[in-house]
Amino acid sequence: MKAALTQSSDLKTLLKNEPLVAAPMAGITNRSFRKILRKFTRGLIYTEMVSVEGLKRQIDKTVDYIRLTPEDNPIIVQLFGFNENSFHDAVKITEEISSPYGFDINMGCPVKKVLKTGGGSNLLKNIKQAERIIKNARKATEKKLTVKIRLGWDRENLVFRELIKMAENEGVDAVCIHARTKSELFTGEVDYGALETAAELAKIPVIGNGNVCDPSGYKRMLNTGVSGVMIGRAIMKTPWIFQALRENKHPENFLSKQELYNLLMELKDFEYEEKGAHYINLLKKYAVFFSKSSPGASNFRNRLYSTNNEKESLKIIENFFNSNT
């Protein structure tokens, strides 16, 4: 396992040493999966999105999201919501419970659940509220503070330049930009030109995000001048992508089937510790993800999902990943 960078590392130095960043992924970047990610990266990892209102009300499930482990760092706790005072309180509560490397304000998520709170991408349409949130979060902590944004609500309302300048003025340490608009969701081409503009404009590090899943995509995004590259959806199926990209290799078939099986068994132990018998459904999901590039993956998926028996499921996984085909 690769050791995590120290808590005191300067953010610019951290990104220079390891430009690859693990994105906040709901239901993915939990404690168990972060332990797997830590085998392949020493860089920044973002937690799942955490509701500031849930933290403020001390809801057990929400508070559990911010219970970090020593190997997590350098880790950024990502917060979402609308009320600026709740952001202040959420940061303070987190620091009472854990010691993250820093915090992130979600201003880019297009999911309805988040939009209903007034947060996420809605803040792209409410710049004044975004500013109030940043001010209050900055007042609450001396730790690193980042904001994750999109280019704007749509192509007629691009606000990333304004948000970068605001972030700089309010003491934000880095801006993460998903180089699409809210309206584009996860479809269409990433706007590399906008990332170039952002990197030229910003006096703080810019972390680019969107569609990086292989060496060519990684190089293309780095060539825009960004300081870091955030990997999102690709980490679900290939958490080893960080090591693969460092070695300039495609993540597909980067690990042998035996190595994939060993990784799944580690994840099994981590998830069992967290969730008890409920671990099996999540393990099956990752087993299917990890099998994608192997011959017979479709048949394996069908067999695995045809049973609800834990022992049978584990046997199907073992037989598939330990076979020579």
UniProtKB/TrEMBL annotation:
Question: What UniProt keywords are attached to this protein's entry?
Answer: Flavoprotein, FMN, NADP, Nucleotide-binding, Oxidoreductase, RNA-binding, tRNA processing, tRNA-binding
Q: Taxonomy-wise, where does this protein's organism fall, top ranks first?
A: Bacteria, Pseudomonadati, Deferribacterota, Deferribacteres, Deferribacterales
Output the Gene3D superfamilies linked to this UniProt entry: Aldolase class I, Putative flavin oxidoreducatase, domain 2
General function of this protein: Catalyzes the synthesis of 5,6-dihydrouridine (D), a modified base found in the D-loop of most tRNAs, via the reduction of the C5-C6 double bond in target uridines.
Ranges for the DUS-like FMN-binding domain?
Answer: 22-320
**What EC number(s) does the entry state?**
1.3.1.-
**Does the keyword section mention Amino-acid biosynthesis?**
no
Residues of the active site are C109
Q: Which cofactor does it need?
A: FMN
State the PANTHER family in the record: TRNA-DIHYDROURIDINE(47) SYNTHASE [NAD(P)(+)]-LIKE (PTHR45846:SF1)
Keyword tRNA-binding present in the record's keywords: the answer is: yes
Give the family per the record.
Belongs to the dus family.
Alphabetical list of InterPro entries matching this protein: Aldolase_TIM, DUS-like_FMN-bd, DUS_fam, tRNA-dHydroUridine_Synthase_C
Binding site residues for FMN:
P24, M25, A26, Q78, K148, H178, G232, R233
What's its catalytic activity?
A: a 5,6-dihydrouridine in tRNA + NAD(+) = a uridine in tRNA + NADH + H(+); a 5,6-dihydrouridine in tRNA + NADP(+) = a uridine in tRNA + NADPH + H(+)
Signal sequence segment: none
Q: Which GO terms describe its molecular function?
A: flavin adenine dinucleotide binding; tRNA binding; tRNA dihydrouridine synthase activity
Name it. tRNA-dihydrouridine synthase
